[in-house]
Specification:
heterodimer, A: alpha/beta, Rossmann fold, 9-stranded mixed sheet, two-stranded antiparallel ribbon, B: alpha/beta, 2 domains, 5-stranded parallel sheet, 10 helices, 17 strands
């Protein structure tokens, strides 16, 4: 069982960020980290490979400036190797461009299953994983909250708005996992040390044969303007003198909810 | 394959004999765009058999009525919708941001090489060009995008438009069968489990009592449920509560759940991650209870308290019932 896991390396969500006013692209400076949402996919893949008794987990990522710090986290968790696509021409890529790049990178490795998070924490569109599946001609199952391999199929409980679907899908396939599908492990000290020497293959757009086919220059939509969403003024925090509950109920009474 | 015409296609979902709220919102958005472009509004209903379609505001509705009974296969939905896109060649396709809509939009954008706008909260047409306003970075930013000249797809955030009020009007309804598709699928339709048929509609509620991770354990939900019951309103929750399986998915507020704008949003133990704020920041009044004075929810709350919810809620129940 070989599994490719798409991971995104993102600016620390807690750190300040900015937008380039001329290109409307996110300015990503400083160290990137492994997107929290992706830790679930990595963990799921490690558990499935463990259960199968053979095979390995390969991380696949696209990031600027040869960024590998987030990948090292995934390698420290237990992934065997990583493929990183990095190319200046990828700046400003839209979701479909990103999907083309990741699909081509995944195709360079052997896999029975591709796992991705349902969506990334930053700048998400939620569409890249299923686009990758379409490009690779793979069947896909999104929003998995439970994943099991059974011979040549993957059995998935798929979260829906109202409940869940039981889906059985032939391998190879792509599955997107929700947060909470499994509890991601913390990398052990040994894992962190061994991650430093695990292979990270770096590919450019030319290596993937995608020059002129992916990247900012071929984005289908043009961002005309970006503005900050209206920020709401912070409210007043009232020191509670023991009548907080009473005040709240009186307020709800005024609004005729009580 | 000819280029797109000026039509707008909307993906409709229905449960319990009526179109979902977001479907009516999509019709409302789609109608404006179709009128501006001078093309028809075509609905494609995926998944119900017994919906009255005589006055849904569309010119044409194509129904795949057996979808709901067959079970879910993204491949089946994509194949069915692709056939309609192929036949109608709309300029714009609208689908809701949700577990069905994301599957459809992602797959069709590749199949038709369409421009795809995600997390769309608004649409406009100027001189025949379509512009979409999308949320970025957890709703902190809004981006206006020109969707280009060809076929475009917009995945629309529920709650972004006022639902169309159903009136009277003629609509050309045609039924399509999935039989021909079902035989050739790689992913066979799976069994649907929809235990939550309670009709809870957190989007329609004027007052919501919402819980987050601070509730600590499933058993503690009872405390807040009592308050919701006393007030006669539904309970909603942030994602951690849903992910833990403590409340079913229809109760989720936030980016991957529902977008709500009640008159009052009463939150207990919700810290206010950007994904959650995105789903409730348009509430008229936000009241937050969280023991962490630095919780981001206080940045959007109109009233806040750092009282322990386990002290505050029982007192509220007593006062409300009293």
């Amino acid at each position: 069982m070989n599994i490719a896991v798409c991971v995104k390396q993102i600016p620390d969500p807690a750190a300040p960020w900015s937008l380039d006013p001329s290109t409307h692209n996110l300015v990503r400076e400083g160290k990137l980290i492994l997107d929290d949402s992706d830790a679930y996919g990595v963990e799921m893949a490690l558990q499935l490979v463990d259960k199968a008794g053979a095979g390995e987990v390969t991380l696949v990522s696209m990031a600027p400036r040869n960024e590998t710090s987030g990948l090292r986290t995934g390698l420290a968790m237990g992934a065997a190797k990583a493929i990183l696509v990095t190319d200046d021409q990828l700046a400003g890529s839209d979701a479909l461009s990103t999907a083309k790049v990741l699909a081509a990178a995944i195709a360079t490795t052997e896999f029975d299953l591709v796992i991705a998070a349902t969506e990334s924490t930053d700048g998400y569109t939620g569409t890249t994983p299923v686009q990758i599946a379409e490009l690779l001609g793979l069947p896909s199952v999104s929003f998995a909250k439970k994943v099991e391999i059974d011979g040549s199929v993957v059995k998935v409980d798929r979260q829906t708005e109202a409940g869940y679907d039981e889906v059985i899908c032939p391998l190879p396939a792509l599955v997107t996992v929700t947060a909470g599908v499994v509890e991601p492990r913390y990398p052990s000290f040994k894992g962190i040390m061994s991650a430093k020497s695990k292979p990270v293959v770096t590919l450019s757009l030319a290596d993937l044969g995608l020059v002129g086919a992916a990247g900012g220059a071929v984005a289908g939509q043009e961002i005309v303007s970006v503005q900050k969403a209206e920020a709401r003024q912070a409210g007043v925090i009232v020191e509670d003198d023991g009548t907080g509950a009473q005040q709240l109920v009186e307020y709800l009474e005024q609004l005729k909810f009580v | 394959m000819s280029g797109p015409n000026n039509g707008v296609m909307v993906v409709l979902e229905a449960t319990a004999g009526r179109l979902s709220d977001v479907s009516l919102e999509l019709i409302s958005l789609g109608k404006d765009v179709a009128n501006s472009l001078g093309g028809p509004l075509v609905g494609v209903l995926i998944g119900a058999s017994d919906v009255a379609l005589t006055a849904v505001g569309c010119d044409i509705v194509d129904c795949y009525v057996d979808f709901g009974t067959i079970g879910y296969s993204s491949e089946m939905a994509v194949t069915a919708l692709s056939a309609r896109v192929e036949a109608i060649r709309p300029r714009l396709l609208l689908a809701p941001t949700g577990t069905l809509g994301l599957d459809l939009c992602s797959a069709l954008s590749v199949a038709f090489d369409a421009t795809l706008a995600s997390y769309v909260v608004g649409l406009s047409v100027d001189a025949g060009r379509i512009q979409a306003t999308s949320q970025l970075y957890g709703g902190k930013l809004l981006a206006d995008c020109d969707l280009g000249d060809g076929f475009a797809i917009a995945c629309v955030v529920p709650g972004s438009a006022v639902a169309l009020q159903l009136g009277v009007g003629d609509v050309e309804v045609s039924n399509h069968s999935l039989d021909a598709i079902v035989g050739s699928l790689a992913i066979e339709p799976g069994i649907r489990h929809e235990p939550e048929a309670s009709g809870v509609d957190i989007v329609a509620a004027e007052l919501l009592v919402s819980v987050g991770r601070g509730i600590g354990a499933s058993a503690n939900l009872e405390v807040v449920q009592e308050l919701a019951d006393a007030l006669g309103v539904p309970m909603s929750a942030s994602r951690p509560v849903i992910d833990q399986g403590w409340l079913p998915k229809p109760h989720q507020v936030g980016k991957s759940g529902k977008k709500v704008k009640p008159k009052v949003y009463l939150s207990f133990g919700i810290s206010g991650a950007p994904e959650h704020l995105e789903g409730m920041r348009q509430s008229e009044v936000i009241i937050a209870c969280n023991t962490d004075p630095n919780a981001p929810i206080f940045k959007v709350a109109h009233y806040g308290t750092t009282l322990d919810l386990f002290d505050l809620v029982p007192e509220l129940v007593e006062l409300v019932e009293g």
